[in-house]
Amino acid sequence: MSTPSLEIKSVTHRYGSRVALESVDITLQPGQFNALLGPNGAGKSTLFALLTRLFKLQQGEILFGGLSINREPRLFLSHMGVVFQQNTLDLDLTVLQNLEYHGALHGLSTREIRARAEQELEWLGLKDRSHDRVRALNGGHRRRVEIARSLLHRPSILLLDEASAGLDVASRQAINGAVRDLCAQRGLTVLWATHILEEVKTSDPTIILHKGKVLAQGIGQALCDDQNAQSIGELFEHLTGTTGQAA
Ligand code: ADP
């Protein structure tokens, strides 16, 4: 059976009179690394807040394989793994304790959590840090712990909001590469939100969000060809009339 896709249909979100998202339509390509590229203020975090039900949907519809976020919220959310922009780990707990806490919230047994945590931490190169307090880890390693944690309940989709923000270039590339491997090796669908042009490849299904509107959606190279652009940066410039924010 093919993986269902996530569909965002005609979603509009307002903060008072300010429109943060306007008639946004996005369909993710299942099993792929989908890049959501937009500068600060584009509406990325608002979209994430809606996808995770931190905010109530004001207008439009969000579906995963036909499951409605409004009608079947628990089931919908059970398919989502999330890494937010801000750190959400407890710095005074160990890596494993953070994972145990999250796993318990998802109803997993201690045995399941331990087995899955070991697998994910090993893959992310952090197995020998399991009993260290998160406070002792550098920024790149903390992000890896958050990725490990987001995978514990075996989601179908992984949402990452500026997951590499604030990291040095090498750590950023490592995190981006690890998430790409997840798609290739496990067929996980990823939504990678970023304002950093270098994190998007022309082979990626790409959504360009600007001032709350989707300006383009498709494989990066096809979008570049349409706009006669030589790179994702040029594409962004042609569509928005502004240069993208580099790292
Ligand atoms: P991004 O994550 O792409 O930087 P946001 O979703 O944070 O974008 O913001 C989209 C727009 O909504 C911006 O104009 C921002 O100023 C506005 N905004 C975000 N949060 C709030 C809020 N709590 N109250 C009012 N305006 C907000």
UniProtKB/TrEMBL annotation:
Residues 6-236 form the ABC transporter domain. It holds the Pfam family ABC_tran. It comes from the Bacteria. GO terms for molecular function: ATP binding; ATP hydrolysis activity. The keyword Amino-acid biosynthesis does not apply. SMART domains: AAA. InterPro entries: AAA+_ATPase (IPR003593), ABC_transporter-like_ATP-bd (IPR003439), ABC_transprt_ATP-bd_su_PQQ (IPR022467), P-loop_NTPase (IPR027417). Keywords: ATP-binding, Nucleotide-binding. This is ABC transporter, ATP-binding protein. It comes from Marinobacterium lacunae. The lineage of its organism: Bacteria, Pseudomonadati, Pseudomonadota, Gammaproteobacteria, Oceanospirillales.
